[in-house]
Amino acid sequence: MPELPEVEALAGFLREHAVGSVVGRVDIAALSVLKTFDPPITVLQGRDVTDAARFGKHLAMQAGDLWMITHLSRGGWLRWTDNPSAAPPKPGKGPLALRVHFFTPEGLTPAIDLTEAGTKKRLAVWVVHDPSEVPGIARLGPDALAVTEPEFAEILGGTTARLKTSLVDQALIAGIGNAYSDEILHVAKLSPFASSSKLDAESVATLYQAMRDVLTDAVARSVGQDAARLKGEKRSGMRVHARTGLPCPVCGDPVREVSYAERSFQYCATCQTGGKILADRRMSRLLK
Questions:
Q1: Which run of H or E residues covers position 50?
Q2: Interval 128-187: pLDDT, tens
């Protein structure tokens, strides 16, 4: 799932390439992607693109007094194409969900494609007058790169959830997902299963600095990249996430995994849990 650094980079990409252009035809390939119907998405046609922004993990493009808000979910992505097909896409064919054509001041006719891999279609698009009309944005906590250390400490102190859960809860802190929470906890050398409210002041400060460092580094590596290269850039910077069985870059011990429901996370037992191997719920069920 694209998280804060990638969505920030995509917003920057749209500011550079789409702002100043005029929205042309909007092609809907998957009707299920639209979560609002009034105003209709076709009302964007003919409007100037005036801005692009990020709200947590939501990508936003402004056209006049309207916003097109996108949540890419787990399998979604944005692709820019300089030479889109003139023919509207056939609904239900392939990963394409939505295509927005543009007319640029230079006379070019590029487009953005919103695509989604896999069979579980969760990509979502809203057209609203105010971003706060999107339920996921309305419930966001402070942004991970804007929250202050005292605010961060207060947030953690107010929940009994495990650290992993707290970091990915968008109502507590906005922008962090599964991948970067793994990285932040590894840098902070804290267990994903540690209780948020029981951290001492030193651990809170360490975690806050790790969050700042991991995210600002990822943003620096991502912003300015072509949209097509962002996924590769994200993977190349990971220390433990999606690296199960590979050596920890700090201590050399194998990176371990905990699986639950449809998700999993990775950690280093030596660096983060004092050598303790965390219970893997999926494996525990198989052994019963």
A1: strand 49-55
A2: 999 999 999 999 999 999 999 999 999 999 999 999 999 999 999 999 999 999 999 999
* 22, 100, 193, 259 from 279: Cα distances, Å: 53, 46, 10, 9
CB 177 within 8 A of CB 73: no
pTM above 0.90, yes or no: yes
Rounded-to-10 torsion of CA 197, 176, 232, 119: 110
Cβ-count burial of 123 within 10 angstroms (0-12 exposed, 13-18 middle, 19+ buried)?
Answer: buried
Q: What are phi and psi of 265, to 5 degrees?
A: -140, 160
**Please, are residues 47 and 21 in contact by the beta-carbon 8 Å criterion?**
no
Q: Which helix (H) or strand (E) holds 16?
A: helix 4-17
Token pair, residue 243, equals: 């690296």
| Residues 6+ positions from 133 with CB-CB distance below 8 Å | 126
How is residue 251 annotated by DSSP? T
Rounded CA separation 233/235 (Å): 6
What span, in angstroms and rounded, lies between the C-alpha atoms of 167 and 56? Answer: 13
Structure-token pair, residue 168: 């990915």
Q: Say if residue 39 is preceded by a cis peptide, omega within 30 of 0.
A: yes
- Residue-wise pLDDT for 43-52, tens only, equals 999 999 999 9
Q: Which two tokens stand for residue 97?
A: 């969900």
Q: How far apart are CA 177 and CA 180, in angstroms?
A: 6
Closest CA relative to residue 126, chosen from 118, 117, 135, 139: 135
List Cα–Cα distances, 45 to 12, 140, 147, 271, in angstroms.
22, 29, 37, 53
